[in-house]
Amino acid sequence: MYLISLSLRCAEWQRGERAVRARLALLFAFAALTFVLPAAAQEKAPAASNVSTVAAEKRAISQSAQFVGRVEAVERVDIRARVTGFLEEVLFKDGETVKKGAPLYRIEQAPFQAAVQQAEANVQRAQATVDNAVVQRQRAEQLLLTNATSVAARDDKVAAQKTAEGDLAAATAALETAKISLAYTDIASPIDGQIGRTAVTRGNVVGPDSGVLTTIVSSDPMYVVFPVSQREFLRLAERHGQKENRENFKVFITFSNGRRYAQAGTIDFVDVKVDRGTDTIPVRASFANSGGELVDGQLVQVDVETSAAEEHVLIPQNALIADQEGVYVFIVEEGKVAQRRLKVGQPSGASIVVTEGLSGGEPVIVGGLQSLRPGTPVTAVPIEKPVGG
């Protein structure tokens, strides 16, 4: 009896334990649902984040093309010695501005002055010979009238006079040459401009074989010469016509540090032939340079713009994203991120021209682009300027 009673008690205890376990399992399941359901609801409806946007701008801009050019002086003169002698004086300071006719070098003059004096003496001697020959001819003609001399003798006097006159002409020419050589001992500036560094100092022997003594370049105005590819030249010709007035093109230059030159230039020359080696056509523009900012030989970026403006869509350059398929931007569309594939044209300052993909007015996202995905809920926050632009 005792064993039967104990067995019944054990069975009741086991049934009670199973009931407790069932209640605990139900309680844990309810608690888990309590935590999981809010989390799932949160994943389905994430909060929209703020993104900086700039509206795609539609405005009229001039068509432009970019090239690489080099600044050239309108006038450039290499100064050389034209006679040989000792250099007595250097009459300028390196780098200064000189005027036309300003003295630059002086070569020792004494030998050339002596040559002039000798040539003058030769002229006097030749003149005396001519005068005597004239008298002898006149006397022979008078004697011939009285048959006191022969015709042959008279002809000899005439020939002697002509010979003396020839010697006089040669002596006179030698005198002029000596005077020119003497004048070459003073070397003056042939143009207005800035002078470079002297290659020789006083005491050296200089002459035609000495090479360039110094260089003078004019400074205002200045040329900028840039090569235009045959393809680009034909494109401009098709768009604006072969006889397009050059005044309709404005030329701007940008220095290597990114600063743009304040004054615009005008195209004044297009070469008449194509460079066969590079398939380019040299084009030249003229720029005022009263401030002396443009330096001969300087490398610059050249922007050629047409005066006829056309309407285009522009967006900040820092909004562009590139991948293997090309470039695209993110815009805000109905509160979500949307992707737009683009075709772009020439840059315009901090912006770039969009030729296909945007019509203007779209809020283009310019900040936090790396973390965005199409379809992500966002709130557009318009800004006036591109981030970093």
From TrEMBL:
Domain Multidrug resistance protein MdtA-like barrel-sandwich hybrid: 76-206
UniProt similarity note: Belongs to the membrane fusion protein (MFP) (TC 8.A.1) family.
Name this protein carries in UniProt: RND transporter MFP subunit
InterPro entries named among the record's database cross-references: MdtA-like_b-barrel (IPR058626), MdtA-like_BSH (IPR058625), MdtA-like_HH (IPR058624), RND_pump_MFP (IPR006143), YknX-like_C (IPR058637)
Molecular function GO labels: transmembrane transporter activity
Coiled-coil annotated spans: 116-143
Pfam families (alphabetical): Beta-barrel_RND, BSH_RND, HH_MFP_RND, YknX_C
Record GO biological process: response to antibiotic
Every YknX-like C-terminal permuted SH3-like domain range: 315-379
SUPFAM superfamilies (UniProt xref): HlyD-like secretion proteins
GO cellular component, one term: plasma membrane
Boundaries of every Multidrug resistance protein MdtA-like beta-barrel domain copy: 221-305
rRNA-binding among keywords: no
Keyword vocabulary terms for this entry: Coiled coil
Residue intervals of the Multidrug resistance protein MdtA-like alpha-helical hairpin domain: 116-185
Keyword Coiled coil included in the entry's annotation: yes
